[in-house]
Write a structure and sequence with these properties.
With 395 residues, the chain is mostly beta strands. Helix content is 13%, strand content 46%. The protein has a single domain, classed as Porin (Beta Barrel). The chain has 6 helices and 16 strands.
Length: 395
């Protein structure tokens, strides 16, 4: 009995040794979970706000009773459309694994929930004929891409999937912008997102170039059978000055593969000292054979705009951002807009950002304002004086 017991024990120990060895071999040959999650960063923020429009424009179809008023009823605003209202603007989750020379493959994923998702994507069609983004949708995937550093020269930064636009001075994320609300220039002159691929390369320590091949503007699926190409040249000679020149060209009209839309964008930043810095953005674009409001066949519709921002740091937890801008859409819709925005950014703690803001929007009187503001007047200058306060928790 003792012999059998010892033999059984030996067999059991051999079996355990073989299991441990096989398990180690499987771990060595299989995917290493530690290497997969290494470098993965998860972050995000929640932004909510209250705003009130002193001009009291009523929404279209509102019969002037003031309920559901649009605070910003111009052609398009990424957020801040509801007046006299508490609004959940954005709940954003970001998951990134940045590709590096040591770990050349990475990815990015960003999702949005809230008011911002309603306007983030508005082009292209699904196979069932529905639009990409219903006006009542409150959730969207802003970014989702695979990144690979191709080992050629200094390394080619390759991305494929869906990503935020490379154009403009502002980001979709309001917490990363000087002002609480986006500029009119950002909202209406440039795209927000693209689906496609990009390839970037550092020519020198101060000059980077990137090329893009995408479906178009703000689409999950393409709205025609043609693609758009874009480019970027970024120059940062020192810590105080940087300049970026961007462009995108290609057919953007639905079911139109030949009439191109062109956009040229310039962004410049200059840091005077620890207290004062400036941000400038200029855009010029045109769409071929788009009569717009002119109604002339074979004519091109042009638009242009600029936004100038000054940022003054009172201390390490509070600054004031003042923006002036002008945007001309008279070719397309007979409307030009200018505005002045002042935002006080107060960092209460590492995670809490409070942002009171005053904004004045002014328009020309060449168009029926009711088409954009819901006002009951026609051909009059309907200005806006908007007061808002935003609260953001950043994690």
């Amino acid at each position: 009995m003792k012999r059998i017991g010892k033999s059984g024990l030996i067999v059991a120990l051999l079996g355990l040794a073989m299991f441990i060895g096989a398990n180690k071999l499987a771990k060595a040959e299989g995917p290493n979970l530690d290497s997969i999650i290494e470098g993965v960063n998860i972050s995000g923020f929640v932004t909510t706000f209250y705003q009130w429009n002193g001009s009291e424009h009523s929404s279209a179809g509102d019969n002037g009773n003031g309920s559901g008023r649009d605070a910003m009823g111009f052609p398009n605003f990424l957020m801040f459309r509801d007046d006299n209202s508490f609004t959940l603007e954005n709940v954003e989750i970001q998951v990134f694994k940045e590709a590096t020379e040591e770990h050349p493959v990475g990815f990015g994923f960003v999702t949005n929930y809230g008011e911002i998702a309603r306007n983030l994507t508005f082009g292209g069609r699904f196979s069932n004929g529905d639009n990409d983004n219903n006006d009542e949708d409150r959730v969207t995937v802003q970014q989702g891409y695979v990144q690979w550093i191709i080992p050629v020269g200094k390394g080619i930064d390759f991305k494929i999937g869906r990503f935020a636009t490379w154009i403009g001075a502002e980001l979709i994320e309001d917490v990363d912008n000087p002002n609480l609300t986006h500029s009119t220039n950002y909202n209406n002159s440039i795209p927000f997102t693209h689906s496609g691929l990009s390839m970037g390369y550092a020519l020198t320590d101060t000059i980077n170039i990137t090329g893009y091949f995408v479906n178009g503007w703000d689409t999950f699926t393409d709205n025609n059978n043609a693609k758009s190409f874009g480019w970027q040249i970024a120059w940062a000679p020192n810590d105080k000055l940087s300049m970026v020149l961007n462009g995108i060209h290609g057919p953007e009209q639905a079911n139109n593969n030949h009439d191109d839309t062109h956009l040229i964008d310039w962004v410049g930043t200059y840091v005077v000292n620890d207290k004062l810095s400036f941000l400038a953005n200029f855009d010029y674009g045109w769409t071929e054979d788009n009569p717009g409001i002119k109604g002339n066949a074979n004519s091109d519709a042009h638009w242009a705009g600029y936004a100038l921002t000054a940022i003054w740091n009172f201390n390490d937890w509070m600054n004031l951002a003042v923006r002036h801008e002008y945007t001309d859409y008279t070719d397309e819709i007979g409307l030009s807009i200018w505005d002045f925005t002042a935002t006080l950014n107060i960092r209460v703690s590492e995670n809490l950002l409070i942002r009171p803001e005053y904004r004045h929007n002014g328009t020309n009187d060449e168009v029926d304002q009711a088409a954009f503001t819901g006002a009951n007047t026609t051909g009059s200058n309907e200005d806006d004086d908007i007061f808002a306060i935003g609260f953001s928790y950043i994690f």
